[in-house]
Amino acid sequence: MSTLQQAITIAILAAVTFLTRALPFLIFSREKPTPKYIQYLGSVLPLAVFGMLVVYCLKDVEWMQGVHGIPEVLGILATVLIHVWRRQLFLSIATGTIVYMILIRVILP
Amino acid sequence: MAGYWFLGITYGVLAHSLGFSIWYPLSMALFIFSGSAEFLALGMLCADFNPVSVACMGLVVGARHLFYGITMLDRYKNMGWRKPFLIFGLTDETFAVNYNAKDASPNTMLLVSLLDYLYWITGGLMGYTFGTLLTFDIHGLEFVVTAMFVTIFMDQFLKEKEHRPAWIGIGCTALCLFVFGSKYFILPAMALILVFLTLMRKRMEGGK
């Protein structure tokens, strides 16, 4: 990717992110209720999107070769368990990352 | 606010370790101001140029902001000159703080947004500087992005009673990854998720 293409990528993300924040203020008014379909999506979409993003993060894992994604699976498992146990966002993120960083040093040949 | 610094510093260290110049994390922190979009951007900037996919990813990752906006319609009314910045700064954390501070004055809400913005920018800069000083091997730190999304996912999962959207999100994406390969799967996955959620609306709203 050239520097210009990278700048365009960042500009697109900046514009789109601002759009998602500004759109409700542009199209919905306080008087009219938000459409039912949008309300429905608001309740179900976040969980689906974060599920999608977790899979997205694993897109380049080679399941059939090398360590078969074992560090990734165990790293995620550690993150899930500590989150169910303590429910502290940053503790879970840090623990999962550290577990992964240790595993790739121990498991990898 | 420790959260902003923690993620900001990690973001800066990661950007440095991936070989980006300081202008990348700095400009993204200044103009995008969204942790999840910026972490994903580090990966996208290393891949082939694909503006459509970038735009759609930005939309989907930012979709939750739509609901913050809808929630804050009332609160951010009559904000005058403060409104554009309040909207620009409607991040997860700022939303959580401003939404829960029911009696906050316009200036207080503006200050919260402004401070979060400064924490995020300085966190990234500190992380980047810290990254240049690190002498030990930090490979594997990129897993922080995965861990972050797993954590947010679990947090939502534990709060919600309806868990089917989670399985739809994971299932559709995994299926599309398998069928279309790692370069082209994300747009079909988004479409498939939307189709499934729409088709299942009656059932989910009926709680069946």
Number of strands of chain B: 0
Strand percentage of chain B lies at: under 5%
What share of residues of chain A is helical?
A: over 70%
Distance between the termini of chain B: 40 Å
End-to-end CA span of chain A: 32 Å
- Please indicate the count of domains of chain B: 2
Number of E strands of chain A: 0
Tally of contiguous helical segments of chain A: 4
| Global mean pLDDT of chain A | 91
* N-to-C SSE string of chain A, H for helix and E for strand: HHHH
**SSE order of chain B, one letter for each helix or strand:** HHHHHHHHHHH
Describe the model.
The complex is a heterodimer of chains A (109) and B (208). Chain A has 109 residues and is mainly alpha-helical. Chain A has a domain at 1-31. Chain A is 75% helix and 0% strand. Chain A has helices spanning 3-27, 36-57, 70-86, 89-106. The radius of gyration of chain A is 20 Å and the shape is extended. Chain B has 208 residues and is mainly alpha-helical. Chain B has two domains: 2-159, no CATH class; 161-208, no CATH class. Chain B has helices spanning 2-17, 23-31, 35-46, 51-72, 83-88, 92-100, 106-133, 143-159, 164-180, 186-199, 201-206. In chain B, helix 1 (2-17) runs parallel beside helix 3, helix 3 packs antiparallel against helix 4 and helix 9 runs antiparallel to helix 10 (186-199). The longest helix of chain B is centred in the middle third of the chain and has 28 residues, at 106-133. Chain B is globular and about 50 Å long. Chain B starts with a helix and ends with a helix. The mean pLDDT of chain B is 92.
